[in-house]
Design a protein that fits this description.
Structural class: mainly alpha
Shape: elongated
Number of helices: 5
Mean pLDDT: 87
Number of domains: 2
Distance between the termini: 56 Å
Oligomer: single chain
Radius of gyration: 24 Å
Order of helices and strands: HHHHH
């Protein structure tokens, strides 16, 4: 006979998020230990850190999409003026692109 497996309501990642919400400021090691005691397998402090990092990244600034606004154009005009003209501004942007900036 096979042993019945436990069915968890939450995924490991969601359980980590819930634990961190309920216990703000705890270390990844404490979170991992609490989830292992709750029956989740293979929850390591590194995995907890990965989930926290991914959530921070997703919560970061969003990149504006769509057409340029008048505010965008005014910011661009100011940028060009700071560089002393279009040619230097274009050079700066091209150089930044070759450095691999996003």
């Amino acid at each position: 006979m096979t042993k019945p497996t436990k069915q968890f309501k939450l995924s490991k990642a969601d359980a980590i998020r819930k634990h961190l919400t309920e216990n703000p400021g705890v270390s990844p090691a404490v979170t991992a230990e609490a989830l292992v005691k709750a029956g989740y397998k293979d929850v390591t402090p590194q995995y907890v850190s990965t989930i926290k990092s991914m959530d921070k990244r997703k919560a970061g600034k969003t990149i504006p999409r769509g057409p340029l606004t008048s505010d965008d154009l005014l910011a661009t005009k100011k940028f060009v003026q700071q560089f002393g003209g279009m040619e230097r501004a274009k050079l700066a942007i091209d150089t930044l692109g070759t450095l691999g900036a996003k």
